[in-house]
Structures are given as C-alpha cells and as structure tokens.
Amino acid sequence: MNDAPLYDAHCHWHDPRLTPHREKIERDLAQLPLGKVVVNGTHPGDWPAVAALAESDPRVIPAFGLHPWQVNAAPPDWLAQLEDFLARFPRAVIGEAGLDRWIKDHDLPRQLDALHAQLALAERDNRAISLHCLQAWGPMLEALKNGPRPARGFHLHGYGGSPEMIREFADLGGYFSFSAYVMHERKAKHRESLRATPPDRLLLETDAPDMLPPEPWQTHSLPGKVPFSHAPNGEPPHHPANIAASYAAATSILNGDPATIRSQVAENFTRLFGES
After folding, report:
1. What's the rounded mean pLDDT across residues 169-177?
2. CATH of domain 6-273
3. pTM to 2 decimal places
4. Per-domain residue ranges for the chain?
5. SS3 letters for 33-74?
6. Which strand ranges, in their side-by-side order, compose the sheet holding 93-100?
7. Which of 127, 156, 167, 234 has the most C-beta neighbours closer than 10 Å?
8. Could you give the CA distance from residue 69 to residue 105 in angstroms, rounded to a whole number?
C-alpha cells in the first residue's frame, strides 16, 4: 500500500477565511494523493456550509457538532437541529464537540452537558465523534469513562494531553491526531505524545485554517509557496494542502518509513470513520 492516499482527520474547509482562496486551494490539493477529509462544524450556524461541501465534494466526510466555545451562545433547540443533520447524512461524524477551560468565561458544567448529549448520540448511532480538549483532560477522561461513548471509538483531535494519559484514552477507544503544528519548538510535549501513540490509533490532521505550523513546514507540502500570499491580520490561514506536511512531520518525529505511516494512518482512518 505504498501509494496510500493522505487523510485529514480534522479540518474546517468551510471556514470563511478560506473562501477567498478557494481556487488556489483546489489547484494545490489537486497535486496531492488526497483521500478523505473530515470537515467539522462547530455550531448550528455553520452546519449548512459543511453540509453543502459534503454534497458537492466526495472527499468530504461531514461532521456536525457543538464546540465548547459555542455552548453559551447555542440556541435552545441545537440538539434537535443536530439530530436533523445527522439524519440527513448517515455517514456523518459528530463534532467538533469537547471541553475547554482555557477559553475566557468558560462554563464547564454546561460544556459537560453538551458533551454528554453528543456522546449519547454517538453511542446510539455508533458514530465516530471528534473531540476538542484544552486544559480539561481530567474531566474529559472522566466523561468518557463514566458516560456514553461509541463502540467504534472516538477521536481526540490535536491531542495536547500528557503522554501518560494516552494509554487510558486508548483503552476506552481513543484515536489521536496531530498536525505539523507540533513542529513548533515549544511543542516538545506534543511530539512526545505522538511518539507514545499506539500505531493503530494514529491519525493526522491540519485543523486548517487554524494551527499554522512553523515556517519551514508551511511550504513543505508542495513545490513553491503553499501559504497564501496575503491575509488581513498578516498571518496566512493554514493551507489545507499542508496535510502532506503533517505526514512529513510524523515521519520525522517517529523516524519512520513514509509508506508505512501512510498505510497505517489510512487503515486507522478507515476503521474509525468508515470511509476509504
């Protein structure tokens, strides 16, 4: 399986920051052996854009969920809306859900209620769920231990917990994804977590347009310039084609064989998300 496609386990192609660059993105993506991409919504307001992408692009696996940053502003009927979108898209993932104690004015009990509701749907339908977690790894582990969770497993995207917790999450069904963002010098713990991840639970992602990697890795994916030539805030959004940089970073950190890593990630992605 030396020619296994590349799989992006977590991104936000529908984000308005990418819209002005759509033609360049498509040209650059066309140079990659891209397989499937999980595109995550974060609140009811952006779920229609995710749905439209999934209907127009066969590479896209849609994910609909309520992000912990959006919990306080969610409409009262958000869960009913979520069930409607899941009914429309039987292969959809749930996400991006999760817990976050880093965000200002966080309401952890409310986040936990929203997480539990989404985990219950994931368990009911045996759907994969993509989970965000910042500064709340203990509560996340407890929620997964003691609450519902899908038999097929769950996805901890951009894993930032300790290497020591990986075994506990893996025993509950966890998969772990990383991007080239871990190549920032300050992310030594994340690189150690990648090394500690069981090979059969490793996934790779971009989180585009967020999580821009350090500059040497912004142009790793393709010849020439992958980053966008301009951005209003002076920092380009993370280019979706940098999924290739995520694979290159993992290969470097693991001192592994590129073809073996591509094959293993493809197998893991298909096992969790049910798409190849």
Report:
1. 98
2. 3.20.20.140
3. 0.95
4. 6-273
5. CEEEEEEECCCCCCHHHHHHHHHHCCCEEEEECCCHHHHHHC
6. 6-11, 34-40, 60-64, 93-100, 129-134, 154-156, 174-178, 202-204
7. 156
8. 10
